[in-house]
Amino acid sequence: MSSTQTADVTTPVAPPISPPGRTWVRPIGWARRAVFFAVCTGLAIIFIYPFIWAVSASLKPRESVFDNKIVPSNWEPSNYRTVWESASLGRWLLNSVEVGFLAAATVTLSSAIVAFGFAYFRFPGRNFLFGLVLATMMLPFAVTMIPVFLIWNELGLVNTKVPLWAMNLFGSAFYIFLLRQFFLGIPRELFEAARVDGDNFFTMFWRIALPLAKPALVVAFIFELQASWNDLIKPLIYLQDPNLYTIPLGLKTVLDGFGQSGEMQWEIVLAATVIATVPMIVIFFLGQRYFVEGIAASGRKG
Description:
This protein is mainly alpha-helical. The protein is 65% helix and 0% strand. It contains 13 helices and no strands. The chain is globular. The termini are far apart. The relative contact order is 0.13. Mean pLDDT is 85; it is low at 1-9.
């Protein structure tokens, strides 16, 4: 006995395909993005507002400096000419550039050498010695200020620019830690292959470690350049000749000079401050890509 049975077969229906070039964003995801960008924009405005206010106040007449108007009612660009002609800002800027680049270059190279040694070599007591290096970060500058001054005085280098950067020849614990973390992330096989090819330790450091650590080196360089540019204590201790002043000590001179007449000329002081601030902003933007990459990469290594 034969019978024919018919079965209903349900054909799966494919989901609708969105036209090319269109992406569907969930309302919740879009709202989170909007909130994120709004918060970032608000924080950016908060951080940049003091500088914008300083630029605006430096372009106002004396009686309107503190009226809190971003756009001045009366413009006084002559404030910049006044401070430039009254103080040796050009010379102080060049001194700061010289000291800053020497300090940043020396501390970056010396710290990289020490960091490579801690990252590559395996020797007894390595971790203990590295811990001692990091412990120096807890030593306040005030503790070593007088002994270090006596050393430079015995060498006859007080009232020169050498003490402002030469101390960086011995590295910095913070930069050693930062660069060591980066070097630990470089595959050790690269160095072993270089050793097989006949490279010595110096050529491995120069040809392999340094090029691969470029973002971290830029971070150390920018950090130290900014620290040297804003340093007032060391120039105040070691410099007596106004022609050797760096920009922080020069700004103190401007502040003292334009406040002795009984009425503080804040518009002139703020004009000098803006001139001293702009170079650091330019340098940060030039190295921003390496700066962010180096900070992120160093944080991942361990």
